[in-house]
TrEMBL record:
This is ABC transporter substrate-binding protein. The keyword Signal applies. Residues 31-51 have a biased composition (Low complexity). Residues 77-380 form the Fe/B12 periplasmic-binding domain. Pfam families: Peripla_BP_2 (PF01497). Keywords: Signal. InterPro entries: ABC_Transporter_SBP, ABC_transptr_periplasmic_BD. Belongs to the bacterial solute-binding protein 8 family. The lineage of its organism: Bacteria, Bacillati, Actinomycetota, Actinomycetes, Mycobacteriales. The keyword Signal applies. Residues 1-25 form the signal peptide.
Length: 407
């Protein structure tokens, strides 16, 4: 398969990356091609024009950076640079989210162990897919990628940024490996649909991508409409990976912080930190007294029924509401946080951490709206919506706890 790729000089979005490598088998032609720019005016424009099929059967994918890659035919061997890319491929192909996946990143079983266990139970081959390591940690080599004979490799925007710093991109270019960019993590409210469109084209699941994007856009527009006339935006603090990281890591103008703003909240971090992520001290948090605190959590502990060296909010598949609520309250044992007003007022919440890197982020957005402006979302049931989406896009049920309040 030949691939002609384009490297954008000016991009509108910082997003995830799909690296495309052509197999050297076949006629022996060089896989490397030419490059050009295809910057778009908005996330909506990119979502509708991100992919196009050429008249001669070639497929051109435009990523959120405005870069384009042209395939002579659909890729048949794809590497997911991040294992959590399965969150998106499952949406595209419920029957086999690992179709065409020949290797993947090593993050899924560590970051979302309960999800991984459910996945393996439904698709035993998920536990047999070779793992390539973690690009952000620098333990992925170009030689390893090539050994899997891929037609395409998908990685995330932050891993792309890391690869630029480490020089890995130069090595990929030298090896003739091509890449395009998608993103669910850095700027999800802009790039989710663009990314799903690009992946839908890559995996030959364009119709499934369009159907999901229609649903995603519908929910996001509904949230926007409901908070458009709010008189006041409550100060809201997003405590990222609470307990797992030092007090208190957060995000500004990115990631779940974007969702707080879109849901009608005033993201506290936007006024304090200059980078996309950083720490706010307990003293500063007490001084600011946010009206609402939302902590992210997961099933990171190996034994959730025993005392943990690093306490965290236990959330996700297979977790009971009582366990989630108890571990959420346990965060308040952090020195100084007993002086916060929000928990005593019942405005202290927990959300499953993996929404920050999943196309299902639109459901977390609904819940944020319900917590921040309960009067505007009294008829909305994010838990029911999550169960419905899970049943339509995954072969296992959403049994567990993904949202919790201190009361």
């Amino acid at each position: 398969m030949k691939t002609r790729h384009t490297a954008a000089g000016t991009a509108l979005f910082a997003t995830a990356l799909v690296l495309t490598a052509c197999s050297g088998a076949g006629d022996g032609d060089d896989a490397a091609g030419t490059t050009e720019n295809a910057a778009t005016e908005s996330g909506t424009t990119a979502a509708t024009s991100a992919t196009r099929a050429a008249a001669d059967g070639q497929i051109t994918i435009t990523d959120v950076e405005g870069r384009t890659v042209t395939f002579d035919s659909l890729p048949e061997r794809i590497i997911l640079g991040e294992g959590r890319g399965i969150f998106a491929t499952a949406i595209l192909d419920r029957e086999d989210p690992l179709d065409k996946v020949v290797a993947m990143g090593s993050d899924l079983r560590a970051a979302a162990p309960a999800y991984f266990d459910n996945l393996v139970a439904a698709y035993p081959k998920a536990g047999e897919v070779p793992e390539i390591g973690n690009i952000a940690k620098g333990d992925v080599t170009v030689e390893n990628l090539i050994s899997h004979d891929p037609d395409a490799l998908v990685i995330t925007a932050d891993h792309y940024d890391a690869a630029k710093t480490t020089g890995m991109l130069d090595k990929l270019d030298a090896a003739g490996i091509t890449y395009i960019v998608t993103d669910f993590r850095q700027h999800p409210m802009t790039n989710t649909t663009v990314s799903v469109t690009a992946l839908g084209e890559l995996f030959g699941r364009k119709d499934a991508a369009e159907s999901f994007n229609e649903e995603w856009n519908g929910v996001v527009e509904r949230v926007k409409e409901r908070v458009a006339d709010v008189d006041r935006k409550p100060s809201t603090f997003l405590w990222r990976a609470a307990g797992l990281k030092d007090c208190c890591n957060t995000v500004a103008k990115a990631n779940l912080g974007e969702m707080i703003s879109l849901a009608g909240g005033d993201n506290l971090a936007d006024h304090i930190i200059d980078t996309e992520s950083g720490d706010i001290t307990a003293e500063k948090l007490i001084d600011e007294q946010p009206e609402i605190i939302i902590a992210t959590g997961g099933t990171w502990a190996k034994q959730n029924d025993k005392p943990q060296a690093v306490p965290h909010v236990d959330l996700g598949y297979g977790v009971s509401p009582d366990t989630s609520r108890d571990t959420l309250k346990g965060l308040l044992d952090t020195p100084g946080l007993n002086e916060l007003n929000a928990p005593g007022e019942g405005r202290f919440y927990g959300v499953w951490h993996q929404f920050y890197d999943s196309p299902f982020n639109y459901i977390a957005l609904e819940q944020f709206g319900k917590w921040i402006h309960p009067d505007k979302f009294s008829d909305i049931d994010p838990v029911a919506d999550l169960r419905d989406a899970n049943s339509r896009y995954l072969p296992f049920t959403a049994d567990g706890t993904f949202f919790i309040g201190v009361n």
